[in-house]
């Protein structure tokens, strides 16, 4: 008799909800667990509280069929599950740079107290190195019920907008286990049998390596983006074209073109917090100098936001009283996420400097309005740019990449646009008599463009 493993997923945020629905799609019976009752009710009703392509369909299908259920009860989870994934959040500590891992601790502890049969706990959250080994001990200490608990760490690399694809067919699987824990290894091979059949590389290693792989990957990506953005600062000064530079170095296969898009920089729930948490963790370990370059990576990234604000002021002469049309507020396209969004940060700063800020994002308005309610959120490009003294493109949605000068002519007060993501055809806009300033390009406005157009 083949008995399929019963899977629980603790935490039903971005990571957990995606993992739970994808595991059901792979054929497992899945129980999603969260302490947030409202969230659980919503998910059980088949409603996804965030935007992710392909996920609502999976959630509806499997909640309807009963393969995917939700609960707030750790007792139920501990008695039922064979494999328990922990996918709770590890936000930045309030007032600090380190990761707040209290939710991971609480989840592991609750599981340990409620597991009543042989089970494997698998951590997926992004955590400071050392967490897995500590929790592996803690879990054994707190477990008094029947059954043996095994412990593994299996970091998640999912990217928003690609979460379903990244979970069903990941680039690689990384799994940290206790030395020679062949049972844990066998169970995870069963969980990931379909990925293995598709020849996904599966790397078994120790806890520390598994934890570090995740933060190393994110630190590398963040560094790559800040690297090109640092060159932006140079090309803005001496002249040159950052896009061509990125294309040219990207042709070297060792470098690669991806994640070399210069612009207003990275944001979101992962890269900014993860590079800060990594630095905090290594300094805690006494390795103060080791990750110091990440401070620079962070600073270069934040300077891009300053640059957009400064450029806007330079162009208009003053921000107070100016009308600004902002295109994009999500931290990246195809997402409704505004966590640490460079776009929302810039919009808020312009508002705080006295500008009237109209914002349009195809998906992000609602979340942005929760964080920064005082901006004027509108539901179309024309509404955002109407009477604008300057238009600023900050998130490269396809809808914005497709914009042409004639779409905005007649609506704006000034034909001035700042391309914060380097996605517009500069020549086309200049030919249509627009003043266009793109990050990473030297900006040499004509006398008429600057000053004369300033609001009074
Ligand atoms: C990231 C990692 O890609 C993913 O592997 C990890 O598991 C979680 O963190 P995500 O935050 O969803 O995923 O978004 P990503 O697509 O990586 O973009 C991050 C930020 O970098 C966005 O603000 C994006 O606009 C910016 N970015 C990305 C650039 O500025 N330039 C680029 O070339 C690429």
Automatic annotation (TrEMBL):
Give the signal peptide range: none
Residues binding NAD(+), per UniProt? 34, 39, 90, 126, 160, 273, 339
Q: Which residues form a coiled coil?
A: none
* Residue span, UDP-glucose/GDP-mannose dehydrogenase C-terminal domain: 325-426
Reaction(s) catalysed (UniProt annotation): UDP-alpha-D-glucose + 2 NAD(+) + H2O = UDP-alpha-D-glucuronate + 2 NADH + 3 H(+)
Going by the record, the broad EC class of this enzyme is: oxidoreductase
Q: Where is the active site?
A: 270 (nucleophile)
One MF term in GO for this entry?
UDP-glucose 6-dehydrogenase activity
Pathway in which the depicted protein is active: Nucleotide-sugar biosynthesis; UDP-alpha-D-glucuronate biosynthesis; UDP-alpha-D-glucuronate from UDP-alpha-D-glucose: step 1/1
Annotated GO biological process? polysaccharide biosynthetic process; UDP-glucuronate biosynthetic process
Binding locations of substrate: 157-160, 214, 259-263, 267, 332
Q: What is its EC number?
A: 1.1.1.22
Q: Which UniProt keywords apply?
A: NAD, Oxidoreductase
Give any Pfam family that matches: UDPG_MGDP_dh
- InterPro entries membership: 6-PGluconate_DH-like_C_sf (IPR008927), NAD(P)-bd_dom_sf (IPR036291), UDP-Glc/GDP-Man (IPR017476), UDP-Glc/GDP-Man_DH_C (IPR014027), UDP-Glc/GDP-Man_DH_C_sf (IPR036220), UDP-Glc/GDP-Man_DH_dimer (IPR014026), UDP-Glc/GDP-Man_DH_N (IPR001732), UDPglc_DH_bac (IPR028357)
The family this protein is said to belong to: Belongs to the UDP-glucose/GDP-mannose dehydrogenase family.
What is the official name of this protein in its record?
UDP-glucose 6-dehydrogenase
Species, as recorded: Neomicrococcus lactis
């Amino acid at each position: 008799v083949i008995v399929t493993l019963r899977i629980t997923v603790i935490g039903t945020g971005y990571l957990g909800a995606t993992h739970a629905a994808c595991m059901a799609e792979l054929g497992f019976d899945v129980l999603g667990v969260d302490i947030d009752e409202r969230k659980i009710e919503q998910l059980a009703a088949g409603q996804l509280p965030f935007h992710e392509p392909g996920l609502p369909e999976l959630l509806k299908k499997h909640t309807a069929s009963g393969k995917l259920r939700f609960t707030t009860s750790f007792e139920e989870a501990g008695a039922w599950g064979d494999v328990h994934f922990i996918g709770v959040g590890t936000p930045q500590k309030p007032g600090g740079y380190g990761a707040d891992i209290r939710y991971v601790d609480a989840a592991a502890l609750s599981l340990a107290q409620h597991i009543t049969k042989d089970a494997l706990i698998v951590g997926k959250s992004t955590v400071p190195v050392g967490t897995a080994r500590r929790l592996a001990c803690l879990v054994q200490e707190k477990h008094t019920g029947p059954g043996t608990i095994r412990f593994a760490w299996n970091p998640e690399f999912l990217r928003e907008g690609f979460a379903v694809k990244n979970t069903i067919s990941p680039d690689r699987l990384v799994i940290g286990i206790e030395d020679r824990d062949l049972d844990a290894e066998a169970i995870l091979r069963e969980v990931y049998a379909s990925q293995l059949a598709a020849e996904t590389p599966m790397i078994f290693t120790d806890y520390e390596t598994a934890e570090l792989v995740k933060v190393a990957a994110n630190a590398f990506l963040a560094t790559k983006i800040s690297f090109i953005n640092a060159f932006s600062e140079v090309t803005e000064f001496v002249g040159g074209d950052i896009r061509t530079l990125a294309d040219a170095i990207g042709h070297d296969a060792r470098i690669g073109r991806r994640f070399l898009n210069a612009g207003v920089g990275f944001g979101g729930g992962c890269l900014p917090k993860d590079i800060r948490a990594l630095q905090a963790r290594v300094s805690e370990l006494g390795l103060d100098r080791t990750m110091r370059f990440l401070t620079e990576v962070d600073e270069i990234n934040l300077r891009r936001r300053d640059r957009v604000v400064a450029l806007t002021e330079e162009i208009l002469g003053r921000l107070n009283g100016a009308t600004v049309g902002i295109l994009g507020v999500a931290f990246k396209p195809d997402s409704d996420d505004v966590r640490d969004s460079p776009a929302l940060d810039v919009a808020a700063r312009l508002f705080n400097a006295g500008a009237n800020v109209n914002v349009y994002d195809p998906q992000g308005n609602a979340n942005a309005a929760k964080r920064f309610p005082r901006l004027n959120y509108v539901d179309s490009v024309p509404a955002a740019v109407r009477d604008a003294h300057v238009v600023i493109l900050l998130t490269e949605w396809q809808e914005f990449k497709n914009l042409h000068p004639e779409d905005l002519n007649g609506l704006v007060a000034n034909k001035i646009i700042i391309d914060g993501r380097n996605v517009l055809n500069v020549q086309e806009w200049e030919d249509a008599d627009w003043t266009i300033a793109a990050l990473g390009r030297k900006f040499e406005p004509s006398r008429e463009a600057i000053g004369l157009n300033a609001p009074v």
